[in-house]
Specification:
This protein has helices at about 15-20, 25-35, 55-70, 75-80, 85-110, and strands spanning about 15, 40-45, 50. By secondary structure, the chain is mainly α. The protein has a three-stranded antiparallel β-sheet. α1 (about 15-20) crosses α2 and α3 (about 55-70) packs across α5 (about 85-110). The longest helix has 27 residues, at about 85-110. The protein is globular, with a radius of gyration of 16 Å. The two termini are about 25 Å apart.
């Protein structure tokens, strides 16, 4: 079996990196941080926010619900109140399905 390089995840992401990942303005990331208690990024000595992979995952869930499913922030808060584990599980399923879809499209294109 050939060696596959494993993607190394960073420990911390700057707010700019998170903003680019989600394709939203930095101000939106800051706003969501203030709205959701689960988001508590560390701050470095300069005061810059440093988001963990878990923070990025939670922001991605918030992004999907608000931007892709059209929910209001109040609706997202109500849906996720005490249900972050379920949202995380759904996130994992969606990510797996996207990887499978990409693989299938690649296979189709190579036939």
């Amino acid at each position: 079996m050939p060696y596959k390089e494993k993607k190394i995840e960073k420990l911390y992401y700057s707010i700019g990196e998170v903003s680019r990942m989600l394709d939203v303005p930095v101000s939106t990331v800051r706003f969501w941080e203030n709205e959701f208690d689960i988001l508590r990024p560390m701050k470095n000595k300069k005061g810059n926010r440093m988001f963990t992979a878990a923070d990025v995952r939670n922001l991605t869930i918030i992004h999907r619900l608000t931007k892709e499913e059209g929910m209001t922030l109040a609706g997202v808060k109500k849906k996720l109140d005490g249900n972050w584990e379920e949202a995380d599980r759904i996130f994992e399923i969606n990510e797996s399905l996207q990887r499978i879809r990409s693989l299938l499209l690649e296979l189709r294109d190579n036939i």
